[in-house]
Each structure stands twice: as C-alpha cells, then as structure tokens.
Specification:
Order of helices and strands of chain B: HEEHHEHEEHEHHEHEHHEHH
Strand order of the largest sheet of chain B: 3-4-5-6-7-8-9
Oligomer: heterodimer
CATH architecture of chain B: Alpha-Beta Complex
CATH superfamily of chain B: 2-enoyl-CoA Hydratase, Chain A, domain 1
CATH architecture of the largest domain in chain A: Alpha-Beta Complex
Largest sheet of chain A: 8 strands, mixed
CATH topology of chain B: 2-enoyl-CoA Hydratase, Chain A, domain 1
Helix content of chain B: 25-40%
Structural class of chain A: alpha/beta
CATH topology of the largest domain in chain A: 2-enoyl-CoA Hydratase, Chain A, domain 1
Distance between the termini of chain A: 42 Å
Bound molecules: zinc ion
Number of strands of chain A: 8
CATH superfamily of the largest domain in chain A: 2-enoyl-CoA Hydratase, Chain A, domain 1
Number of strands of chain B: 9
Structural class of chain B: alpha/beta
Distance between the termini of chain B: 24 Å
Strand content of chain A: 15-25%
Largest sheet of chain B: 7 strands, mixed
Number of domains of chain A: 2
Order of helices and strands of chain A: HHHHEEEHHEHHEHEEHHHEHH
Helix content of chain A: 40-55%
Shape of chain A: globular
Radius of gyration of chain A: 21 Å
Largest interface: A-B, 52 and 53 residues
Strand content of chain B: 15-25%
Shape of chain B: globular
Chain lengths: 318, 312
Amino acid sequence: MTNYLDFEKPLAEIEGKAAELRAMARANEEMDIEDEAQALDKKAADLLQQMYTTLTPWRKCLVARHADRPHCKDYISTLFTEYTPLAGDRNFADDHAVMGGLARFDGKPVMVIGHEKGNDTKSRIERNFGMARPEGYRKAIRLMDMADRFGLPVITLVDTPGAFPGKGAEERGQSEAIARSTQKCLQLRVPLVSVIIGEGGSGGAVAFATADRVAMLAHSVYSVISPEGCASILWKDAEKMREAAEALRLTAQELHQLGVCDRIIDEPMGGAHRNKDETIANVGAAIGEMLAELDTGKDRTAARRKKYLDLGQKGLAA
Amino acid sequence: MNWISNYVRPRINSIFSRREVPENLWSKCDECGTMLFHRELAENLNVCTSCGHHMQISPRDRFANLFDGGAFAEVDVPVPNADPLNFRDQKKYPDRLKAAQKQTDEKEAMLVGTGDMGRTPIVAACQDFSFMAGSMGMYVGNAIIAAAEKAVERQCPLILFTAAGGARMQEGILSLMQMPRTTVAIEMLKEANLPYIVVLTHPTTGGVTASYAMLGDVHIAEPNALICFAGPRVIEQTIREKLPEGFQRAEYLLDHGMLDRVTERGKMRDELITITRMLMGLDPAITGDLPAPDITEAEDMLEAVKGEDSTS
Ligand SMILES: [Zn+2]
C-alpha cells in the first residue's frame, strides 16, 4: 500500500480508481475493464512523472521525510555483509538514533555509521526519530577513531531532522559532542564518504557529513535549519515554510551547484519510497565509485581540509 | 628580543579607538533597573556597577581594554561573495547587511586584531552580537581562518570571544559549512601547538557553540552568559516542561563540565595574560593598564613590514 503525500492526492485518486476497477473485474469476470484501467495507469504514470520532475523545494522536504523512504537500516542490511553493530560511547549510554559498526562493503572491511529514524511508532520512539543525543556523536567519534587506527574507510549515511533539543542532551554537552565529531571527520587519514539519504538537518548532519565526498539522493535535502524553523524566525510565520524552503537552497541540485554536494544519486520515478531496491542499489553503486576514487592509500586529511577551506567560492548560477 | 619586533602592521588610528562617551547620558540596567551614567558604565566595561550584570560590549571597546594601550593592528579578512544564494525573506539579505553595517559602523560580525596583551603577543577575534546577532556566515568563517593563520604566522595564541545567535540563515548551507571550515582553522592552531582560548559571552548559541566555541584548550565564560546549542524556548516546546533556574547559563555549564572557568569581565584580561603566558612558557605576567606601543617605533615597524611584503 502506498502512503500518499498531500500533494499526491490527485495521483491517489487515479490509482485508486484503477485499483477499484480491477477489483470489480476480479469479482465479475464478464466485465472488460482492462483498456480503461490501462488508460488510468498511463494517466497516473504521466502525472507522477510530471509531479516528480517539477518538485518544489518544500515538496522535496516532504519526500525526503517520507515514512516509507529506505532508512539507514535498509541500506546496511542490503549493501553490506558481516555487519557487526558496535554500541555505546563508553561514557554514558548507547544512542539508538545512531547505528554503526564494522561491516564489509564489496568484501572489504569498512566502518559504517548512520542515523536511523525507525519505521513504526515503537521503533521511531526507540530511535528518537533519528535525532541523536551527545552519546550518538560520541559513539560515532569512537568508531571513526577505530576505523582510522585500523585503516578502514568510513561510510556515513545521514538522515536526521537535527540534534535532539532536550534537557539532558544539552546538559551532557550536545554542542561539544557535535563539534568534536566534525573535528574527528576532519582528522581522519582514511577516506570518508557520506551519503545524505533523506534529511540532512543542521549540525547533526555536519557532524557526520564533513567528508571527502558528499553524495545526496536526488530528493534529499541538507540545510542549516528546517524550513519551518527558518520561516518562524525570518517570516515570523511557520506557515511560510514553502518560501523558506525555496530561499534556503536546500535541494541536492542547488547544493551541487554550490559545491557542497559532490554527486547526485538518481531516485526512481516517484521517489525512493516507490522503489526501495532500485534506490539502495543506486546508493551502493555511488558509494563504490566514490571509494574507488579515494582508495589511494594516501592520508586524506590535507585534501579534505582544503576542500572545506575552499568551499563557498561558488555562487549559484543566475 | 624587543617586544615590538613582532608587532605587525599597527594602524595608528586603532590606538585612539576608545570612543568618546558623552558625559551626561545615562541608561538603565535591564537586570536591576539602576540608572547608570554612560561614562561610568563604559569605564566599567559595560558591567552594571550596581548588580554586576554583564551587558553587550562592542568588539572595538573590548579590544581597547584587552590590548596594551588599546593598540592593535586589524587583521585583514578576505571578503566573501556577498549574498551567494540571492536570499530574500521579508527583506533582501544585502539590505539587511547594509542596515547592520550602518548601525554598527562595522563591516561584519567579527573583528580580528593582533597586538600585545600584557606584553604578550596575541591574535584576538571578537564576534559582534549587535551585527545581525553575531551570526556566523562566510565572513565570520573567513575571519576565524584569517585569525588562526595570523596566530600561526606570529607563533602566538589566539583568543576568541564568541557571541552569536547561531548560523547566518541568509547564507543557507554555506553558513552551516562554517562549522567544518572554522574547525579546520582550529586544527591549524593545534598542529602548531599554539594556545586557543575561547571566551564565551552572552549569548553563544547554535552552530557557533557546536563548532569553534567548544574546541578551545581553555573555555572561559562571562557570568550568566547563555551558552547552548538548542535554545531554552525550543527545548521547552519539545519536552513540554519548565526548565530549571539558570539552565544553560555559564555557571550551569561550569557545573556540568563544559567550561574551565567563569570570570568577570573586569578580571578577564589579567586572567588571559596569566594563562597564555604559562602555556607559551613565558615569564610571569606583566599586568595592569600598560601603555600603547611607542608610535614612532610602530611606524618604523609598519614600514619595515611593508618592505618585506613587497619583496615577498
Ligand atoms: Zn544592574
């Protein structure tokens, strides 16, 4: 069953009609509806294509947050073998919003780390909707450190609304944890490849995505603040999120122009959630290619630092 | 070694940067309500003489107090692409920038200077909360990188005074990218084994706290400064409960292990001198209100430096 987004309502109606017709035909073999149903299919496919080739920045945010979108867990279980989760920050707790561990990619050992949002009410609560607490960043720092010592490339999968705005998170040094995680990304000698698979929310994303190569799925977003948050501050009206999403330039395509995103990964027509297997395969291929580009045995630190120092010279094409 | 031998590009006008304050004006302390003469307040570094409340102080006024005789050379900051996103909310970003420049008489939200503090060569950078809430964009990032590079060049400590509402939203992702960019700057200092001291002032929040403000060798905050990643209002909305008194204030962070010290503004300079001199392996501090470096000597140095620049 498809979970339709609000803007997909017209599509839901057409696909609903086609499904209804086919259900009726199954009940009554005399009916010949196939021509009509196929016409509806065609209409739906055209509409889907029309909608998804012209997604506004705000609609991209909705697609990026879609509950059925493949999540970190799906990528890890499909693209990696021998995944061995490693838990805990050795200090306070294990943060379930961040998963990570040793695994093999294309047979070679790597460290994989990512935000996991969960896929039903129970797991969403357990995963804190992908919003890490300080322990999550500190676990990531620990795993990155280990990878660096043993010469394993690091792959991060980013999908978070942002850091968790909670009392304990602040008390335990959320800011410091994020700052140290970003710093660790910059200190790694081994290759660091990052894919924004859904939402790249602010500091919580930077802490994992300060990478040699940053790829983004075509309908993922990466932003300094959520459009709702930006709208309520700059427009004094949270309902102006469409305007804010546009102004923030948070789409993969715009970030590619700005040099923040190195590579855009195609999504199936209608978004990642309409064909998870194809999406995951596309991401796997991109990771493989990025690792191959970086697999020189050289210390990556200097090049990665230069990349970030040079960032921001490119404006948007007029 | 003559202390002035490291004195690079003094701009003579900065020696006279202590602003003239009208004598007959007063303002009200927003904490205790006491009426304070501007002059009296300025002499007390904008700290209420009645209740000790620390008010905003401009980077230039801070530097006038920090550097010996108030003399410092402004460090050039590469000017970035203004308005890289063609950002427009209710106003155009360039218009907001112009208004802030007019209001503060400053180029941007961070001032970088180099000079001597208690005869100790330093680079100092100070964020200006009155300039678009001190927000961190490309310019602030460039300023911190320039400050770190200058400190490495002069082999001296960097002291950074933070104050910011967070990232400059009008620069979108490029403001966020200042978190890694400024972290690279801090890495340069670490590699050169130079002290990096952060002085956190009210308020220091968001992406600023979650990058260069929390990566110092020593963290000192001014009393009662709000220091956080997510602001108290956002947290109250999320967890739907009232936060404890003093939550996210300097003293609270000190208790929770995020700061080394909470120090009053009036004692800050002496403390910074003491700490930096020990970290640099220098003799005990020379404190107090030291005179400005000799102007003619400074001018000679400036000429000498110019000569070096043109040959290099
Ligand atoms: Zn007062």
